[in-house]
């Protein structure tokens, strides 16, 4: 089984044509979580913890983190996404 070492994913930037940036990001993350709309499924069945302690740091814009038991997240704002793995 392969592991994913870095869990902060960067998705290509696309500006929303309608609605707010937050609702647009919610839609994109929902599609990635479900594997719909022609994108791969990203969830605890496809992203694996490497069982090493890591510090995940948020940056500009909205972030989506995959957090294992040993991960610590800093710089996360309340509207960002965190999925346990």
User: Pairing-aware structural class of the strands and helices?
Assistant: alpha/beta
Ranges where pLDDT stays below 50 over 5 or more residues in a row are 1-7, 10-16
Overall mean confidence score, pLDDT: 79
- The number of strands is 4
Largest sheet: 2 strands, parallel
User: What is the 3D form?
Assistant: flat
The amount of beta strand, in percent, is 15-25%
Secondary-structure element string:
HEEEE
Strand order in the largest sheet? 1-3
Query: Over the alpha carbons, how many angstroms does the gyration radius reach?
Result: 13 Å
Kindly state the percentage of residues in helix: 10-25%
How many individual domains? 1
Tally of alpha and pi helices = 1
Distance between the termini: 15 Å
Summarize the structure.
This protein has 85 residues and is an alpha/beta fold. 16% of the residues lie in helices and 16% in strands. It has one helix at 21-34, and strands at residues 55-57, 64-67, 72-74, 81-84.
Topology diagram in text:
Elements: H1 21-34, E1 55-57, E2 64-67, E3 72-74, E4 81-84
Parallel strand pairs: 1-3, 2-4
Characterize the structure shown.
By secondary structure, the chain is α/β, with parallel strands linked by helices. It has one domain (21-84). The chain has one helix at residues 21-34, and strands at residues 55-57, 64-67, 72-74, 81-84. A two-stranded parallel ribbon has the order 1-3. The radius of gyration is 13 Å and the shape is flat.
